[in-house]
Structure formats: C-alpha cells, structure tokens
C-alpha cells in the first residue's frame, strides 16, 4: 500500500513537470510565430521574388519578378513597396513589373489573394543610395605644441550607403606614402610622421557599392599650425559697457569676437572690439538689456590663420539707468480760502531707446515745512493727484529702474502773473492735426529769461496732453486728435521762476455733423401766438461749432412740412411765432448746423388745436397724469378682483360676516329680507305667460292697525308677528278658491328647490329667527281665512317679504292625503285641475298665471303678505 502511494506521488510530480515544459514550449513558439523581429527568424516564402540587384541607385527603375509555387489561374497578385501597393494584376503564378525606388531602404513584397484573403508569396529588403561625391574640402590643423595633426573633410551629398573614405599622403622625392581611414569625417594623425618642412600631396578617396570618387589637396605642417584656442574667463559691466577678460597661450595674436541671442536663435554676428591691454577687450555694440546672449572668441595671426572658436560664454545684459529727465507737467487748482492747492502731476513714460533697465516705480518728492516728503507710484501710473499747502512751490519726479534712477525732473507750481502769449493762429490741418501759432513780441525785454513754451490740450480733465518747445518756436502742429471732439488749448510761457498766465483757445481737428437734434418746447403766449424754445446740445453731440438752427413746422396728422425758418446760433434759442389760419394740430422740430452740415431733427413738440390750444409739455403733462391715474386704478383693481373672487366662497363670506359682527354693532348686520328669492318675484319675472292688465277694481290695500296678539301656541322657531285687521269671517270650504280665479296649472316640471338652495335659504332665514332679540314674536293662525288647495308648497312669504320654509309645519298644517293617480282629474266649478302624485305631506310651490294673480290678490285675505293668494292643503276634518 505504501509503495502504491509513493508511485502515485512520483507520477503526479512527473505530470506537473511535463505541464511546465509544455507551457514553456508554447510561450517560445508563440513568440517565434508572432514577433516580427528582424534577424530572429527567416520568412518562409511560398514562391520566389527576384530583383536585378539588392543595392540600386536611388531614383532608378527596377525590374521585379514574382513567382508562386502554386499554379492556379484567376488569382490576383500585387507588388508592395514599404506597405504601398504599386502594381496589381490577375495571373496564374508569375508576374513581372518595373518599379521606381525613392527610399533609402525599401522593402519589396509580393502577395497573392486566395479565398478573399491575401497570402505572402515572398519579400526582399533592398538598399538604395548614391555613389560618393568628390570631397570638396579637406583641411588639417595643429597647434604649436600639439602632438597630433587633426584633419577634417567636407562632403556635399549623403550616400545613404556604407561608404569608406581614406586619405593618402604622398611625397614625390622620398616616395613616402601614408594611408589613413577617415571616420565620421575626421582623422587624427601623429605629427611625428611628417616632415614639417615638406609639402605633401593628399589624395582623399570615397568608395561604396555604387562607385567611388577622389580629390587631391596639398598639405604642409608649417601651414597647418594655428594659434591655440583662447578662453573667455570673465565679463564685467562698467559705465554702460562690458569688458571681456580672456587668455591664450600664443602671444602677438589679434582677438575676434562673435555673439548671438539665445531666444531668437539668431545667426552669429561679429562684434567690434577695442583691445584695452593683453587679455582685456571692450565690446562696442549695444545689446538689448535683459536678453541672454552667447559669446565666442578666437585669435588670429593673419586673416587666414586663426584659432578655433572658444567655448561658448553665456551672459545677460543688464539695463542702463536713464540719463535724461522725465517729461513732466502739472494741473493746479488753488483754493485761497483754505490755503491749499490740488495738484495733479503728469509724466510721460520713457521710450525703449531712453530706458534700457526694468522700470520699477516712479518717485515723487516735495519739500514742505522744512521736511522732504516722498511718494512712490506704480510703474504703470502716468499721473498722481495730491493736496498741498500753498507754500509748496516745486515737486520732483524721477523713474526708478533696476539699473538705477533717472535724474529728477522739476515741476514748477508758481504762477509769475506775467501776461500770456498771444495766439495768432488756431485751425484744423490735414491729417487730423491742428496748427497753432503764437506771438511773443510783448516779451522782448525779458526774452532771455524764457526757458520754453508749453502747449496743453485736453478733451476732458483726465485726458490731458502737453508739448514743450524751445523759446525760438512760434508755431507747431498738434497731433493725435480725434474727429468731432472739442479740444481746449492752453498756451504757457515757462521761466525759471514760474509759469505765465495761460492763453486759451478751442478747436476741432475735424468737424462732423451733429449727432442729434435739440429738444424743443412750445407754449401758447397769446391769441394765435406761440413761443418756441430749444435747449443747447451737449458738447459730445455738437461735434463742431454750431452755426445756426432750422425750425420745422409740419402737420401732425400726415407729417407734411408746412413751413421752416433758419436762425443763427448767436440768436437767443427761442422764437415767437404767429399761427396762420386755418388752425390745425402741428408739430415743431429743430435741427442744428455746423460746418460739416445739418444734423438730425430733434424730438417733436405737438400743438393740439381744438376748443383750446394745448402745446408741448402741457399736453405731455396731461398724458402723464392720465397714465398715473390709469396706473392707480389698475393697482386698486387688482386687490378688488381678488377679494371679489374670494367672496364666491361661502366659508370666506361666513368668516368675514362673523369678523364684522364681532367688531361692529349688531343692528348693522341684520339679515334683511331677500325679495329676489320670493316666489312672487320669481313668478312675476316668469315671461312664459302672457301679459295681463290691471282690473278696474285695483285699489291700494287699506292701512291696517297694529295690535298685539297672544300666540296660540309656542314654537321654538316662531315666526315674526303677522299684522292683521278685523275682517268678516270667511266660511271655510274644502276648496275656498271658488270665487278666486286662480287656476293651478298642470305641468310636468314643478318648481322645486334643490337641497342646496333649501339648505342655504334655511340657514339665512333661521339665523335671523334664532338670533337673540328683546321683542317677542307672536304668531296667530286664522285657518278659516286661508284658502286651501291640494298641492305641495315648500315655502311661504312672510310679512317682510322673506321666503320661509314650511317643511317644519307639515305636521299640523296638513295631513297625508291619499295618493292620486297621474291621470285623475279634479273638477271644481267647471275648472279642471290635474294633481301630481302626492307621496308625503310636504308643500310644493305652484305656478301662477299673471292673469289669475290679479284677481287672487283682490279676493285674498288681508293677512296674506302683499296681497298674494296662498293656497294650502289642510285635512278635511279641520
């Protein structure tokens, strides 16, 4: 058993080792068949690919033969060069074509298509290039103390093939021949093999698979000795120039310098240098500050015998401090009451030619009460405003750069009070400029004290420009002005002790038409007289000097021009005008003119002529008032509409009623009779019956005395006391309307109120009946005076015209009647009557004809409210 177990373990170990071996073999085969590594495996061809030569001249034609091992006609063959198909044909097994090779190392491939899949026939890698060209340059150099001669060769054309170059030195007398191989265009030869006093013939030869070429030169060791390569050791910047320190092993040599900028990748340029002493030169070119440069130095014995260029020395040129003063000016507003002055100092930044250093800030300084105050402004600032006392008479402005500060520029704050120069000419000039001329003849005695002339022009207080000229100038051109913009010109004389009074002027470099028209107003001033007034245009809308205005009159309804008139600008901006018959509504418009032409018309002012004339702003005011009233009405209507919509909700009405009752007097909220809900009113409004005329016997009902009557019974929901009059007792019969012309109508649609209407009416009525009241309501019934009819009534009229519900009185006013058939007809005094089926002892309202209503009112009981005839169904045993 143990032996069996051991054998089982050994066999399992062997299977495990075999699995590992199989896995390694699979990986190896996978790599062999999937990796396309050149030289790792050989491509198995399914045919042959034959070319004329493996190495060909680039750009020439090459014949290619491709033959498949399998011969089967109708197959498609293709030739590819570097993955691009250059030839394709259908054949059995052999194809031939010519191709042109333009790549250095092309790969030619032949393939065949079978079963819609391309298969490789064979492929071949070719080499293409050029034969070597003749060397055009070969030179050998050595230094005085060097042990080797270094030779280099220049080749014009790249061959793209393996090319071997050799150099052979021959001497005819001694038959000495030295052969060396040139690698990468250079070769180093021991200096000891040469006779330095002899001249050698040099043969340089190049050879590759396509051919060879050679060139002949001469060589002498003495002629090849050049100075040793110098070295730049230090560069110093002094007095806005830089000095280069260098060293060399050869004496009596002349240094040469070249430089270039790193940023722009410029070509080398030769610099002009001055040799201060041995190993010390100064460069005269001005380089751009803060730009990195590269310097290289060489030394020459003659112009043809110079050393190699030294190693590159990198430098960055620092900036130069400005040497000129800033161009400064000021604008002063003095306040003698508070003894101070508001001074705005202006300065112009340096141009790149004047400043080679990095600008850091501007510094302002002034002296006040024996102390010097300094202010620092941003490098981007061009002005600064500060408040100073009147004792400050001068300020200084300087620019601070990374290379130093500029000289301080003084700003004089003193007015000398001397007269201003006389402006002799101020007019626009071509090119958007202005020509300014002046006269200083009145300054002849003090002309030597004049330092210069200052011209200031500005279009706004913050957009100020100035220009300083010498005292010999008497005219200038001002540039940089915008068309259609008014400029204020000020001219000053600058002296050492202050500034003169200014001479003022205004000018446009070029006028443009006005931008808009003036606003006009028209007011009646008398019978058929109106006063037209207009406002002056804003300065930015004038765009020129206004010369005159044109007033236009046009008919309001169709805008037809009626009349126009022109007024000069010097004329007051108003016009009194007399209206001509026939009078009709008209508009008044005004336009402005300058040298460029007429501008657009302004807003129209309208005169409405009806019974009374209303013009211009008065009518606008009325329209504005109407708009305000309409706005107020709209604002007030919104909450009213919301409240009206809420009143349709019963819960809202009840809540508002309770709130008002709790806040006000009780009698104000009594539930008054609703006449519109009475059956009488409803019957009177019914137009389905023919009209009726009053009888001749119609008289007003007599006034009845009021007396108190004790109630015959007590009811919880008692009705109000009914006023009555003693009248003869009328005998009661089953149908007491024998003498009453009332005729119940047979109709299928009986007037019945819905449960919601009854419920709402009962709430309104009983809320009043059950409300606390100090007056007791006595209710007496005289059933003998009430006409009776066998039908249902849901309500009755009270004395106050209200509609009361009789559903609570059905138990004692009537008893259930036997049900009648729908087709049963009751006759009474020759009158037919059809009763509806009665299933209970309730009352239903009846339809009353207007013709019958009059006679019923006359013969009815006076206890009936408003003389209306009421009929009730009562038990027969009453």
Topology readout:
Elements: H1 2-34, E1 47-51, E2 55-57, E3 61-68, E4 75-81, E5 84-91, E6 94-100, E7 107-114, E8 117-125, E9 127-129, E10 137-143, E11 148-154, E12 164-171, E13 176-182, E14 186-190, E15 199-208, E16 211-220, H2 221-224, E17 225-226, E18 231-238, E19 241-247, E20 254-261, E21 269-271, E22 273-277, E23 280-283, E24 292-302, E25 305-306, E26 313-316, E27 327-335, E28 340-348, E29 359-368, E30 371-378, E31 383-389, E32 394-401, E33 404-405, E34 409-412, E35 422-429, E36 433-439, E37 450-460, E38 463-469, E39 475-478, E40 486-495, E41 498-499, E42 503-508, E43 520-526, E44 529-534, H3 539-542, E45 548-555, E46 561-568, E47 574-578, E48 586-594, E49 597-598, E50 605-609, E51 613-615, H4 616-647, H5 650-663, H6 679-685, H7 755-769, E52 795-797, E53 803-805, H8 810-813, E54 825-828, E55 831-834, H9 850-859
Parallel strand pairs: 2-9, 10-17
Antiparallel strand pairs: 1-3, 3-6, 4-5, 4-7, 7-8, 10-11, 11-14, 12-13, 12-15, 15-16, 18-19, 19-23, 20-21, 20-24, 22-23, 24-25, 24-26, 27-28, 28-31, 29-30, 29-32, 32-33, 32-34, 35-36, 36-39, 37-38, 37-40, 40-41, 40-42, 43-44, 44-47, 45-46, 45-48, 48-49, 48-50, 50-51, 52-53, 54-55
